[in-house]
TrEMBL record, chain A:
Required cofactor names: (R)-lipoate
Key words of the record: Lipoyl, Mitochondrion, Transit peptide
Protein name stated in the entry: Glycine cleavage system H protein
Annotated family: Belongs to the GcvH family.
Residues bearing PTM N6-lipoyllysine: K93
GO cellular component: glycine cleavage complex; mitochondrion
Single Gene Ontology BP annotation: protein lipoylation
Source species: Coptis chinensis
Compartments (UniProt record): Mitochondrion
Record bears the keyword Mitochondrion: yes
UniProtKB/TrEMBL annotation, chain B:
Organism: Coptis chinensis
Pfam families hit by this protein: LplA-B_cat (PF21948)
Domain BPL/LPL catalytic positions: 86-272
Signal peptide limits: none
Alphabetical list of InterPro entries matching this protein: aa-tRNA-synth_II/BPL/LPL, BPL_LPL_catalytic, Lipoate-ligase_2_inactive
Coiled coil: none
SUPFAM superfamilies for this protein: Class II aaRS and biotin synthetases (SSF55681)
Gene3D superfamilies: Bira Bifunctional Protein, Domain 2 (3.30.930.10)
Protein name: BPL/LPL catalytic domain-containing protein
Amino acid sequence: MAMRMWASSTANALKISCASKAPFALPRCFSTVLDGLKYAPSHEWVKHEGSVATVGITDHAQDHLGEVVFVELPELGVSVSKGSSFGAVESVKATSDINSPVSGEVVEVNSKLTESPGIINSSPYEEGWMIKVKPSTPTELDTLMGSKEYTKFCEEQDASH
Amino acid sequence: MVLAGWASWSFDFNSLNLDALKYRTQLKKPKLPLLTLPNSYISTRGNRPMTIRNNITVPLMNLIKLGGTPILQQLHLEEKLLRTSSLNWCIVNDGTNVPTVVMGMSGVPAELLELEPVIRDKVPVIRRFTGGGTVIVDHETIFVTFICNKDDLPSVQPYPRPIMDWSGLVYKEVFNGIGDFHLRENDYVLGNRKFGGNAQSITKNRWVHHTSFLWNYDVRNMAYLKLPSRVPEYRSARNHVDFVCRMKEHISRSTFIERTVEAIGSYFSVEPIKLETIGTQNIVFTPSTRLLSKEELSAAFGSQIENSCSERVLS
């Protein structure tokens, strides 16, 4: 357990994403968790900057989902609610709901994901962002997990299965 | 050949009374398919009905058996139960009434279908709410669907691979001693031949895993489908006839259905229920699964011809 946390912290500090296909990959891959973001238990991240919150899915989520082949996103101006679905991704014959960590209005949608849904796998925290929301209740962010809490959450989830 | 008309189904799914069903299963003692204890009783975990079997709490699963129900109607029922019910469901539909093409959520008709014969023969084309590929189903297809609360299968993470692996265990039990069953990549195979297409939809707390099993099929219907661009590695460039097999060569319909229900009984306490007894209530739900219109298919055919002409010009 200690080795796993050390490796996770090191990977996190180096902003390394452990690719499961890498020849040097450990049998259990450690997903990247970035500082400065907030995390939902349904494995979405949110970055709050000024009046806009950017939302995507975490490295843990994209790793467990597999190759994303299609993304369904909302239209501009649509209202989203904390904990409710705003879209879906398709991977390995499955559609999986994506839930918004915050309530508010969608002010921007990542149109690149239509042509290149795999960006979510290769860059879940940067180019793979999904929507930008103008939060209606910014205090909702306080209920989300920080990076350390989310790292522990993921480890506990994976260990229990 | 298929001469089906354009279907417009009008089953009133707003009439399903799911809350009434919840109370029914909470109050009634279950008929346990396996060992039954004299003191077995219904309890609840959260809002989910449970029963006790050998001192272990086992979640309930409602079993709906259908026969020849239109696949669009079945998919609407599944989507509604996934999104608006908190109960576990197993739906078995023994065949559908007319041959129908069913695409996954992201399916593009121009890429997946031979649209000229589809339009000529008026084959219904559905886009379903789950992922995955395209199938053509008919009265010889057997459909099996599991709709589960993730917390009622705590050892199964709510992601595609773990759900698929769990379903593989269920069907391994079904085919135990009958056929060389495997889960190969994402397909169910007997030997190295696929006999069923499966797909999933996963929400925050629930998921559906459904399969269309090829108990038998008309090879002429395969002519409506193009060879998909994404194929599993184990297909090894085989054509459709060499890649798939008929389940009827291994097991009868009734035995397959019986053994599937029995296998599910290892994980749930299965409670048969008739669809018409669920009752009525105003639950408004708009499914995303839908029948594609003639206009949409014609437009897709137009783009298919354009692309074909462009390829000829470039080559």
